[in-house]
Amino acid sequence: MADEKTTVRFGVLGCAQISIKLCKAILRAPNTTLQAIGSRSLEKATAFVAQNGLPEAVRVYGSYEAVLEDDQVDAVYIPLPTALHVTWAVRAAERGKHILLEKPVAMNTAELDRILEACEGNGVQFMDGTMWVHHPRTAKMKEALSDEQRFGQLKWIHTCLTYNPGPEFLKHSIRAKPDLDGLGALGDTGWYCIRAILWAMNYQLPKSVLAFPGAILNEEGVIISCGSSLHWEDGRSATFHCSFLSYVTFDVTALGTKGSLRLHDFTLPFEENLGYGTFYESSELDFGKIEPGRWCPKPNEHVVETEAPQEVLMVKEFADLVGKVKFFGEKPEKEWSVVSRKTQIVLDAVKESIQKNYQHIEIKL
């Protein structure tokens, strides 16, 4: 049961599908409570609360502005279409609301900078809604990548996140509309691919980006399938593919000088509902243990237990940071702003490379 004296009270702007998962995460986290839901109509907000079994005590509002005006709301989760993020995140920051912002966080780095400047100017905490980085498996994978004896030095990483939602999605979804989520698959699934690459590279930005020829855009110019390579000055490289046109795949492969790491469910562990996630790693150190009939060592499977789903852990960590600001007078943690901005910078560069007929794009801060 949350302690009311140190509980972070959440408001949610919008009734998107992802809002259901986050509302339940807010109710489940030990340091948060769901205070309010706002939609473009009171009827929609009321129906959302009822249909999803949310507590009757949750306040419902017929506008996003009303949530921001509620003095009993400490923080807001914003799952609105990406094109609306800059408007509502800035307004939220100006009203002193801490911000958990769904990814992709903005249409471009310039918009994100406006959001981050508003957050810093008003002393509010910022975090984006990339859930998988909060799973304990992610920390264990970083330990594996950092093991110089087994893994060596990271040389290359590939990520792939695709799904095929069908023609109705491509025709009607906001993710295919330039005025709503104009980054398309690059923003929706490519964000995860880029974040995973930067995470593995300790968030060191690449020197350059080169999108692969053959990106597919819809009739309105929204990217629905693309890929890219990323290059670092020290010779490390990465590739990724994201798409709305291929079978569902959530893959990461990282290769080091002495070992490798692989997983096939990096954004959402297959077995998280059972309380764990797995990943595989292998090393040249295992060659002395090769089983008969194999040409290489069998990969080691690592099972990482978790006390709660990753969305709950994300909400808890965000609320912990908010609590330090609200209850103890500390300054907001800037790490998450830096990580989001670097992800956005690379995403922008990939889009620019596509727009410029697949030219190399130099990364600039």
From TrEMBL:
<dbReference type="Pfam" id="PF01408">
    <property type="entry name" value="GFO_IDH_MocA"/>
</dbReference>
<dbReference type="InterPro" id="IPR000683">
    <property type="entry name" value="Gfo/Idh/MocA-like_OxRdtase_N"/>
</dbReference>
<dbReference type="InterPro" id="IPR055170">
    <property type="entry name" value="GFO_IDH_MocA-like_dom"/>
</dbReference>
<feature type="domain" description="Gfo/Idh/MocA-like oxidoreductase N-terminal">
    <location>
        <begin position="8"/>
        <end position="127"/>
    </location>
</feature>
<protein>
    <recommendedName>
        <fullName>Gfo/Idh/MocA-like oxidoreductase N-terminal domain-containing protein</fullName>
    </recommendedName>
</protein>
<dbReference type="Pfam" id="PF22725">
    <property type="entry name" value="GFO_IDH_MocA_C3"/>
</dbReference>
<feature type="domain" description="GFO/IDH/MocA-like oxidoreductase">
    <location>
        <begin position="145"/>
        <end position="262"/>
    </location>
</feature>
<dbReference type="InterPro" id="IPR036291">
    <property type="entry name" value="NAD(P)-bd_dom_sf"/>
</dbReference>
<comment type="similarity">
    <text>Belongs to the Gfo/Idh/MocA family.</text>
</comment>
